[in-house]
Amino acid sequence: MVHIQNMSQPFVYGGIGEVEGLVGLQDELNTRLSDRANRVTMQSFKMYLAKGIEGFGGSSVGPGMVWSTDNPDAQIHSFGGDASSPSEEAHIGEIREAMDKISGVPPVAGGNVQAKLGNLSSANALRITLMSLIAKTMRKRVGYGRGIEQVSKMVLEMLDAAGVLKTRASDRGVRVVWGALPVIDEESVVKAGLAKVDLGVAVEDVVEELGFGDADPGVV
User: What pTM was computed for the model?
Assistant: First the structure.
């Protein structure tokens, strides 16, 4: 058996789940959303208070209705309805931001681009915005990469013992190599490679560093 901790926890074999810190915030968010839904249901209707208009109580309120009076002091006030609640909206927004920070997955990673993020056309801007997600991904690569290596070694040992695939002990060491994260500006990488060539670095070394080998069909 190969045990891979989702998130490491000191002196705990099983580790800790990623959603442990989100349970309380999710409960709070559900409560606030339920309160808002109840408020909207109870206050979605509007009421009107008319002053100086005779017979207004027997009139229906709807589109195209016009009331007329000779009283210059007549007034109609509407109240009720789904009024704005800035404190409620701010509280819900703060809960969502706290959930994003704890989970390490910002909204932009799911395609929810907000105006306050600024210009995301450069690799540096994306890297700063997704810094928490990148760090989380790197930790996952270390943990799960080690687990994949152990699983592969165990499978090779079982295949060797069963006589299906004979291997030596030195041949069962598997190393997982992760590729670069996609938050890299290819144009900047190419420019950096050309600058290294201008400084005297061998072209073959630069091509190898960029991920192209001699066996690549695109390399001439």
Answer: 0.52
